[in-house]
Amino acid sequence: MLTFIGLGLFDEYDVSLKGLEAIREADLVYAEFYTSHLMGTTPEKMEKLYGKQVHLLSREDVEQQPEWLDNAKDKNIAFLTGGDTMVSTTHVDLRLRAKNLGIETRLIHGASITSAVSGLTGLQNYRFGKSASIPYPYESRRGTKVVSETPYDTIKQNSELGLHTLVFLDIDNEKGYMSVNLALELLLEVERKRGEEVMNRAVAVGIARAGSEKPLVKADYAENLKNFDFGKPLHILVVPGKLHFLEAEALVKLAAGPEEIMENIE
Ligand SMILES: C[S@@+](CC[C@H](N)C(=O)[O-])C[C@H]1O[C@@H](n2cnc3c(N)ncnc32)[C@H](O)[C@@H]1O
User: What are the boundaries of each domain within the chain?
Assistant: First the structure.
């Protein structure tokens, strides 16, 4: 049996009681933290609470030839991830590989950043369009910096439909956790290059450390927000589309957004 367990958003205490029990009953416990990371804890603290050793897996361990998966043929394996286990990850692929090997699977859900953003910002979850992800720029073979334009296109398409965009920020082994500030700089860079006007007139909302005692939520015009200090990771960005008056009020009162937001409501 392979049990996928979502650990929630911030520290070792975010796991559900059902998840904790399943971890304690497992023969072997594996975890991956490359799709998301619980910044308020460490593997050692998790092991102490769970009373189990946690084997950390790299992206290759999970996505290429997961030898550890064979253990699930005759043992109870717990596979831990940040957030909810199937949200904005490719773990359905792992689940299908397990199924093809005749391994039974089950899911134990955890709180996800995708629902936390609605709670923290007051933006309604059914008014979001397609999500975007911003990767770190890379160097082309000619040595020039390449910035992905895909997230900008997604924001533009959503905004034309009046929908909000949730923007996941890259986690990279070497470059670290992308900040809201860098994400906005990259989006504004694409905009300048194209000579378009989606972001520079937009109000954006940055969120840092959802699930912690003091999450930070700040709304402002993208040009201003890119200089705001969001502190430690993890960060995520929302670019709102058309605002219902309750959403606008929430951005002003709960996210210290500019009062003019109230003039642009539906
Ligand atoms: C690829 S998504 C994975 C989502 C995860 N499976 C879930 O359900 O929450 C990870 C990205 O979401 C954002 N994120 C996740 N947890 C966060 C948190 N507690 N606070 C702020 N941003 C977070 C970051 O941008 C991070 O790089």
Answer: 2-111, 114-264
Angstrom distance (rounded) from CA 118 to CA 124: 6
Q: Omega of the bond prior to 234 within 30 degrees of 0, cis?
A: yes
State the CATH architecture for 114-264: 2-Layer Sandwich (3.30)
Ligand 1 first shell, C-beta below 6 A: 9-10, 35-36, 82-84, 87-89, 112-114, 168-169, 171, 207, 209-211, 234-236
Q: What is the pLDDT along the chain (266 residues), one digit of tens a residue?
A: 999 999 999 999 999 999 999 999 999 999 999 999 999 999 999 999 999 999 999 999 999 878 899 999 999 999 999 999 999 988 999 999 999 999 999 999 999 999 999 999 999 999 999 999 999 999 999 899 999 999 999 999 999 999 999 999 999 999 999 999 999 999 999 999 999 999 988 899 999 999 999 999 999 999 999 999 999 999 999 999 999 999 999 999 999 999 998 887 77
Answer whether 2-111 and 114-264 agree in fold. no
Tell me how far apart the alpha carbons of residues 80 and 167 are, in angstroms, rounded to a whole number.
23
Q: Hey, which of 9, 10, 36, 165 would you mutate to test ligand 1's pocket, going by the most ligand atoms within 8 Å of its Cβ?
A: 36
How far is the centre of ligand 1, averaged over its atoms, from the C-alpha of 7 (Å)?
Answer: 12
The answer as to CATH 3.40.1010.10 being correct for domain 2-111 is yes
What's the predicted TM-score (pTM) here?
Answer: 0.96
What's the ipTM?
Answer: 0.99
- Upper half-sphere CA count for residue 54 (Cβ side, 13 Å): 24
CA distance 94 to 252: 42
The CA distance from 157 to 162, in Å, is 9
